[in-house]
Specification:
Number of helices: 12
Number of domains: 2
CATH superfamily of the largest domain: Zn peptidases
CATH architecture of the largest domain: 3-Layer(aba) Sandwich
Oligomer: single chain
CATH class of the largest domain: Alpha Beta
């Protein structure tokens, strides 16, 4: 077993720098694909360590390879750059409402800590292969209109940062991947995975009329939307518990004047579930309910479906290695491995669909995730300890001829056999249609699936 004291001691010696990075990023939050200030700050930090960076060009983020000089697998470690928007948080950016209410500032600082440890002289001795540290943008699936604009301009292909890097070839030579998310636990914790999701937008178009004087001349798009939501809610008892389904819509436009029949209403929603087939199945059922609801009122309806994130599955062998690494840093009573399956989503799921991946969490914040009461109250745990566990885990994967990493790769169970196969499947999930067609003979036809 490799002596990793050089790595761990160097991270500890660099703790002031790591903690300062956490505070700097907290004070300068930026949402997905806008993280240019964070990019510039971290670029300076990595280059000061002597790292050679490959930047992504027209989107924020970069990676650096730490090569052992001996043949072996490539292990990627991610740190997420983006913030949320929580305008009621006392420390949010007053202009944008942005705040790191999910702790990504800690993940970026921890990734810097890993770089500090692994660039120390002798840190890579005895390892085989290379470690790719990736500062990745846009994990939070928000500001969808802005991301659609970027997509329409050809700047991005995917809304999620890790997906986008997959499309750009950044992970083509990566064999396994991991990261530690920030949480509110007393230490290190790891479950078995979490949901994936489909992004959905529904546009109802009716006919405006005077709401008091001649409502009979209108077609009320808001009523059609209400019927659709009720129809979708009536389906909830058909959601199997084992599929972990979540459907949560919001109305983003619902009329412009109280004395006019609303003729244009939009709804955005996620359909979340535990497997890709379940996501597609429930997405189709909800689309059918919306299409029938629009027809019942006489509205037109445009359905736009777009792949959100794939379900995430933590590789069990990677989990065992990282649990042992955490045990070298933390006492046993601060390490928790469970059979919990989360109902949130992450683009780490897309990575886990093509290669072995692991996404545990470590404590550091109090309050509610994504809430206006989230504060980083134990930054040392969330950054310095996190960096130590990840750097030590990387060493354990790649020591002894990368024995543990090779075992993980040999035993991998993934949804897709390659990134091109994944990309092709995700493109098939993109679906846009005029869902209701009214015929001259009075019949109505519905289209609600690709």
């Amino acid at each position: 077993m490799k002596d990793c004291s050089i790595i761990l001691n160097t991270i500890e010696e660099g703790k002031d720098r790591i903690l300062a990075a956490e505070r700097h990023i907290w004070k300068h939050p930026e949402t997905g694909y806008r993280e240019w200030k964070t990019h510039a700050f971290l670029k300076e930090q990595y280059e000061a360590l002597g790292c050679t960076l490959t930047e992504f060009g027209n989107i924020p983020g970069f990676y650096t390879d730490l090569d052992s000089g001996r043949p072996g697998p490539c292990l990627a470690i991610f740190g997420e750059l983006d913030s949320l928007i929580v305008p009621t948080h006392p420390e949010c950016d007053p202009e944008t409402g942005a705040v790191h209410a999910c702790g990504h500032n800690c993940q970026s600082a921890a990734l810097l800590g890993i770089a500090i440890g692994l660039t120390a002289p002798g840190a890579l001795d005895g390892l085989s292969g290379k470690i790719r540290l990736i500062a990745v943008p846009a994990e939070e699936l928000i500001e969808l209109e802005y991301r659609q604009e970027l997509k329409d301009k050809g700047i991005i292909r995917f809304f999620g940062g890790k997906q986008e890097l997959m499309a750009r070839g950044v992970l083509d030579d990566v064999d396994l991947a991991m990261m530690i998310h920030t949480g509110n636990h007393p230490g290190y914790t790891c479950g078995i995975g979490s949901n994936g999701c489909m992004l959905k937008q529904y546009t109802f178009r009716g006919l405006s009329a005077h709401a008091g004087g001649s409502p009979h001349n209108g077609i009320n798009a808001l009523y059609a939307a209400n019927v659709a939501l009720n129809a979708a809610n009536a389906l909830r008892e058909t959601f199997k518990d084992s599929d972990h389904v979540r459907f949560h819509p919001i109305i983003t436009a619902g009329g412009s004047a109280v004395n006019a029949i609303p003729d244009f209403v939009t709804i955005e929603a996620y359909v979340r579930a535990a497997t890709m087939p379940a996501i597609e199945r429930y997405s189709e059922k909800i689309n059918r309910a919306f299409a029938a609801a629009a027809a019942s009122i006489g509205c037109e309806l445009t359905i736009r479906d777009c792949h959100g994130y794939a379900p995430r599955f933590n590789d069990p062998e990677m989990g065992r290695v990282m649990q042992e690494a955490a045990g070298e840093i933390l006492p046993e009573d601060r390490i928790e491995v469970t059979s919990n399956f989360g109902t949130g989503c992450s683009d780490m799921g897309d990575v886990s669909s093509v290669m072995p991946a692991l996404h545990p969490a470590i404590g550091g914040y109090t309050g509610h995730g994504h809430g206006n009461d989230l504060y980083i109250t134990d930054p040392y745990l969330a950054t310095v300890v996190s960096a130590k566990i990840q750097a030590l885990g990387a060493a354990r994967f790649l020591e002894n001829g990368a024995e543990k990493a090779r075992r993980v790769i040999a035993q991998k169970q993934v949804i897709f056999n390659s990134i091109p196969e994944y990309l092709e499947a995700m493109d098939r999930l993109t679906f846009t249609a005029e869902a209701v067609r009214y015929e001259e003979d009075g019949t109505v036809s519905l289209r609600y699936k690709a």
